[in-house]
Design goal:
Elements (H helix, E strand, L loop, with lengths): L18 H14 L11 H5 L25 H6 L13 H4 L8 E6 L5 E4 H7 L3 E8 L4 E11 H8 L7 E6 L19 E5 H4 L5 E6 L2 E2 L9 E3 L12 E7 L6 H5 L23 E4 L6 E2 L7 H4 L14
Parallel strand pairs: 1-10, 4-11
Antiparallel strand pairs: 1-2, 3-4, 4-7, 5-6, 5-10, 7-8, 7-9, 11-12
């Protein structure tokens, strides 16, 4: 059974925030020393409550991987979301506020020197944060450009100390049916599971996000910890991570379990390879009335194409 989803072009038309306005806001936060909640969206700030990591935002910008434009308006990116644990439509941000993100523990297991658990704030204390502006491309053909804050995934992998036998890292979302109502439907393979090959996880581009728009990441966007692999379709980017398992076996992700002919393990963006039910040649940015051409690897081929040189026999683009 497949979840019925509205397509990306069924959103309200709102204007995109120019990057210059966002950067001015970011500088204002630094100069005035304002807390993150003071400039948050109406309603969302109150719902989020105090976050013990808020003082660490905004973080220094890393432009090494480009600064694509135009920046998506914050309201668009934080109120048009996929988070199927809370519902099957895009307007789940209010329901997602029920998620409690403190205390939050991440379990590390599998092929590591020593399994362990670590709290989110202890993890943040050990890793420096930075901001990166990345494109995001959903398999449904909507897209956005947003400023994530977090740290390279390779830093997290180093902290986990996998053994030489580890070939994949498997990540899972929180399982809490009392808060996440869709998890009560036993027809679906909860908890949400996704994974990367180790060389993908160690690639410089792969990012673990803890913040968005210069403050802690909203719950509907995957708080407090989510994967950002911007050259892959969005369903690979598992949210609200509670565990990392290092394995010598390739994991089967949530969507792959539901429909393997449409959603595969690699899920790299390629405009020339259509989804079985629609074209991937173009996309519609959130807030825009126009469709634009989709780029190979979502525009990040120079950083990731080499990962797949010896994997051309596999279905890399689904």
């Amino acid at each position: 059974m497949l979840i019925k989803r509205r397509r990306g072009w069924e959103l309200p038309e709102n204007r995109v925030t120019p990057e210059g306005i966002y950067l001015q806001r970011r500088d204002l936060v630094r100069v005035m020393g304002l807390g993150a909640a003071s400039l948050a969206l109406p309603g969302i700030a109150l719902a989020q409550g105090a976050d013990p990591s808020a003082a660490r935002y905004p973080a220094p910008r890393n432009d090494r991987y480009g600064v694509p434009t135009p920046m998506t308006a914050e309201k668009q990116a934080t109120t048009y979301n996929n988070f199927y644990e809370f519902g099957t439509d895009k307007s789940i941000w209010r329901d997602a506020q029920k998620l409690e993100v403190r205390p939050w523990t991440i379990k590390v297991s599998g092929l590591v020197e020593k399994p362990f658990e670590i709290g989110i704030d202890d993890l943040l204390a050990r890793l420096p944060l930075e901001e990166r502006v990345y494109r995001h491309r959903c398999v449904e053909t909507w897209s956005m450009i947003v400023p994530w804050t977090g740290f390279p995934m390779r830093s997290l992998v180093a902290l986990c100390k996998p053994t030489s036998g580890a070939q994949y890292v498997v990540m899972k979302t929180l399982s809490k049916p009392s808060v996440m109502p869709e998890q009560r439907d036993l027809l679906y393979p909860w908890p949400y599971t996704e994974g990367l090959a180790m060389d993908e996880a160690m690639n410089d581009l792969t990012f673990i996000a803890t913040g968005l728009y210069g403050k802690p990441i909203p719950k509907q966007n995957g708080a407090p910890l989510r994967l950002v692999a911007p050259w892959k379709y969005g369903f690979k980017n598992v949210k609200s991570i509670v565990s990392l398992e290092f394995s010598d076996k390739r994991p089967v992700g949530f969507w792959e379990k539901l429909q393997s002919q449409e959603y595969g393990f690699w899920a790299n963006v390629n405009p020339k390879v259509p989804h079985p039910r629609w074209s991937q040649a173009t996309e519609k940015p959130l807030g825009s009335s126009e469709r634009i051409p989709t780029l190979l690897y979502n525009g990040y081929a120079e950083f990731v194409a080499g990962l797949y040189t010896n994997r051309t026999a596999e279905k890399l683009y689904m």
